Request: fold
Amino acid sequence: MPLKPPSFAGNLSGPALLFQGARLLWHPRVRWLVLTPLLINILLFSSLTWLVGQWLTDWLQTMMTHIPDWLHWLIWLIWLLFMVLALVIYAFSFTLLANLIGSPFYGLLAERILSMERGDTNDQPTTALLQTAWQSFLRQLQLLGYFVPRTIGIGLLTIVISFIPALNLLAPLMAAAWAAWSLSIQYLDYGADIDQVEFKHLVKRGRDNRWQGISFGLTVLMASAIPLLNILVLPAAVIGGTLLWNRAYKTTD
Reply:
């Protein structure tokens, strides 16, 4: 039978579906599709956390030397904002890399969740599983072609703004908004790919119903910024995004 919908609708269904995704992580039909990329992500998480820690320390020290004397009373706020910015970059980078590496498994996970959601009790044969895994990897490369140049542009603009007094307070907000939008498209795409919806059409549907998607993406972003928890967030977000696609975006004209 189809999976139970979240208990509340509207924009809040984004966070609700992420929690529902977490509850389904250990379902017998999807457990192995969660555990295999989980082990890979543990190695990625350890390396990326160390690199971000080193980078953040050096960057903050450099930034402090460029703060004019009249803004010294705001140092605590500037530190806080740049910590938020660093967490956004960390969460977004971790998610992009982990999704690319785990995409063959996550594509299969999304396919299995859609089958459960739509009441199909039969699993794909091995040849179909391999085809789904390969298609999911290719689709992730297409997503990178869309996200990487735009992310670089947003990143450069954020860096420039971060050196401008007063305006630098907007840098974390700008980065968070872009990351939330990107993550919403990233996780909606698994279901869209299975339903053979072209990526450009997915982006259009995402824009038409952007706030529901951004709500989901922002929830994923905040959870992904928490070390250790972020390892489990990725498969939960794949499940939640797939359910969100099926319930809110699939029938969008």
